[in-house]
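Run folding on both entries below.
>entry_1
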Amino acid sequence: MKKRISTLSYYQIKTMSRIIDFQKSILGLNENDLNARIKEDELRLKKLEFAHTLSPLENPMSIRNLRREVARLKTELKKKQTV
């Protein structure tokens, strides 16, 4: 029996390319810029979460995506601090 290789869906390809673009954009930032971006995104995340508690957001996945972006920024900051 042959094993079927699953193909990536359009959504998966789109998501992967968005993540790669994001990572490329933060590679050139220095520690101060990363800290500023983290604070800015955390504030935006708090506002989104607050707005979501008052009335449901049209796209609640935006909260998850922003939380993941903040985690990626913090990871990149840690990498730059250790090197």
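>entry_2
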Amino acid sequence: MGPYRHPVPPLWAPWRMQFILEKKPKGCIFCLLPRQKKDRQNLILFRGKNAYVILNKFPYNNGHLMVVPNKHTSILGRLGAKTLSEMMDLAHRSMEYLTRSMGAQGHNVGFNFGHAAGAGILDHLHLHIVPRWMGDTNFMPILAGNKVMVECLQDTYDRLSPLFLSKRKRGPRKRGS
């Protein structure tokens, strides 16, 4: 009988050490990141008038995006109609681009309000868009408690960024189109 071996070998995810070791900024990251004007480094794919689209730095799936209002609030009712409308338009475009560029077969879209609902950032609401594929829930999360990410964040950014830029050059979408 040899040394004890865990029944499931570990899956190495060295990029998670960045999350553990990085100094957490003071203040709201959803307010701080857009001010830095380092969109690729900060994973900001698109800036609208009232909201922006950003890749989730610690995603549930490849291509996990968030639509974030510029206004700092945790209460949906404090956002005006123009901001809410723009957020829904950006959510629609994000799903379209994820389907076109990554072959997403479905999407989970939603807000997490409050710690009990799974919100990691409580003070600045944001809309999650998680692309899904048939069979993307496999044995890894069930048996090993791990999720396999198949693409680096910067590669996902480079895949999606041109799609958002093409819309920026053409201007806003017209109603009904």
